[in-house]
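Worked example

This section walks through a single chain of length 127. The input is the sequence exactly as stored; nothing has been trimmed or padded.
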Amino acid sequence: MAQTLTLTFMSGSRDGEVVQLDAAGSPPSISIGRVAPCELVITDDPDLSRRHTRVYWNGSSWMLEDLNSSNGTFIGEFQATRRLSGTSAIKEGEIFRAGLTRLRLGGAKSDQVAVAGAVAAANARRS
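Given that input, the structure is written out below as tokens.
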């Protein structure tokens, strides 16, 4: 059964963009890299490998796996960053880095704020 994976770009030319990908296969997974057949292709990151990392559903949580990339895959931010060795569970809202690209598992935290802001702006125009 396919699972929908939502990722939010946290850096680069696609900063703020939210993508939803259908993870298929057994286990349901998507790969991230510079070239197809990766399901999420990021062409403007020179530190990203052709097939860099994979996110897959293990039946109860999303897992992150580095695919022997040259520059590694990292979980967390700043001083809490750790280089991934093997496979690790990743939680909703957690940030990971592949190459120079930072991604967050899940949609943008500001989605509700953006909707509320749009409603407030529309109401102000009517006044």
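What to look for: Helices lie at 111-126.
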